[in-house]
Structure formats: structure tokens, C-alpha cells
Amino acid sequence: MRATSKPPRVITFEHCMDELLKAKAGDWKNMKHKAQWEMTLREYAKPLHEMPVADIVLGDVKECLLPHWTERPETADRLRSRIQAVIDYAIAHEWRTATNPARWRGLLDKVMPKQKTLSRGHHAALAYAETPAMIRKLRQSTGTAARAVEFLALTASRSGETRGATFPEIDVKAKTWTIPADRMKAGKEHVVPLTDRALAIVEIMRQRSTSPLVFGGGIEDRPISDTAMTKALRLASPDKKATLHGLRSSFRDWCGDCTAFERDVAEAALAHALRDKTEAAYRRATALEKRRELMTAWEAYLDGSR
């Protein structure tokens, strides 16, 4: 009796993705870079995960990109590039013989709709006059994503900084949050003064926590996803095009229009690098307590009490 041969192993996109991430272990610039790659592929490329990598076609990649293509063009571009890297890895290992359907020139550039032209760093921002209403709506939810968005708004921090926040970074006694250099855009440690409500959010999350992450996503100690936070923001926001990064612009516009705080204090709160060395030295020496006053005033405004 002839023995039956085993069916060939089906190599999925997810398998290739995991193998590529392992292979790149020594290539990451920092932990933030690693986290960005992993989040993009694990969250945004999820529609491709279970598909055999040999069978993925142009239409599959297009459908995966479309939800992000016009609203978040920079995110979509990074997603496309990282999908292409995964499929290139499969081709290199002979798990796929066809060409790469995530290639831009000559393929996707012929079928994808035109993206909005946004200058780098420009994100749709909620008008600061509408931020108190957004905060009130957020507080009606008990979910982790809602608390993460509220914390982000109170601290004027970036999404990645908030998502990656850990309890050891929080000094409850000093009322500060120290973000390490490898999670900062400028590559420099940033100390954020925390208001009473921000500290209360940390305590709420500590009571729920199963990991060092303040805003855990509930899966293998991963942080809450950018997608979940954006969804929570838009459910609460009067402006459904508002972005997480745009909340920093809301804060900055409020500083300029509604307060007498000096410009360098507002810029320090946003961790913006200053070219003027004298101004930068002044900011390092004296700005923490001035920033604490500013963030306390911002909290009062968001609460509707100022």
C-alpha cells in the first residue's frame, strides 16, 4: 500500500510577518521603532494575517489599505511599505513565486485613490472650544481607550508616548511622568507635570492593570492600539475628523489665544526642540513648575471650570 504524502505546509502572511520581525531584532533604531512596526503589522494588516502569502493579490492589499488611505495617509504609506517588506521576505524564502502586490510603482499607484496632500506633521485638530465637551463625553465611558485619550489630552502628549506609558515612569509623590529618551520623537528624556485628574487616571488604571503598562491592550502585555484610541476620540468628539495628534494643536491654540503663559513654556509642554540655545537652557532650568501651572490651567479649562 502506497503511503500518502503529507499536504504541503501553508505559509500565511502572519507567519512571514512574525519571522520578519524576529529577523529584524538587531536592526531597530530604538524600542519605539520596533513598537511602531509591530503595531502597524499586527493591528492594521490584520485582514491579511490568515491568508496564504502565496495567494495574496493586489485587491487584497488595496482593501487592507483603504480604511486608512485618505484619512491617515502617512499611516497608510507606512502600512503599505511594511506589508511589502513582509511579502518580499516571503519571496526571498521561496514561499511565494509571484511578484509583490504591495509594490507602489507600477501597481498600487494605478489603483489607489488620490490621497489628501498634507504637510508633514499636519493633523486634523479639534477646535479648543470643543475640547471640554469632548472630555465630558469621554468620561461617560469606563473603557481603557477613553481613559488613554483623556490622559493624552491632559498631558498634551503624543499617541505613542501615552500608549507606551508604564507605571514605573510615574512618580506619584513628585506628580511627574518621565518619558525615556527612546520613546521621545527628539530622542531626549521628557518630564511631564501631572495634574490631579491625570494622576487619578493613573490610579484607576493601576487598579485594573495586569502589566507594567498604564494603558494595556489586554493581549500579551501590548499597549492599547492607536486605532482603539482614535475610535474613542471620534465617538466623543463633535468633529469626527479629529485626530489624536491634533489634540496637541488644540492645546497649543488654547495656550496662545486664552492664556498669558510665555511661548517657550507652551513649547516646552509639547517637548518641541528650540533652536535658540539661551531659550533652551532657560526652559531646562525653570520651565517644569511653569509648565505645571500651565497644565493645571488646561485641566481647569477642560473641566469647564475656567
Beta-strand level of the residues, as a percent range? under 5%
Instruction: Please give the radius of gyration in angstroms.
Output: 22 Å
Shape assignment: elongated
Percentage of residues assigned to helices: 40-55%
The tally of domains stands at: 2
**Strand line-up in the sheet with most strands:** 1-2-3
Note the run of SSEs as H and E. HHHHHHHHEEEHHHHH
User: Could you list the spans in which at least 5 consecutive residues all have pLDDT below 50?
Assistant: 1-7
Round the mean pLDDT to the nearest integer and report it. Answer: 86
How would you classify the helix and strand content by structural class?
Answer: mainly alpha
Number of helices in the DSSP assignment: 13
Largest sheet: 3 strands, antiparallel
Give the CATH architecture of the largest domain.
Orthogonal Bundle
The end-to-end span amounts to 86 Å
* CATH class division of the largest domain: Mainly Alpha
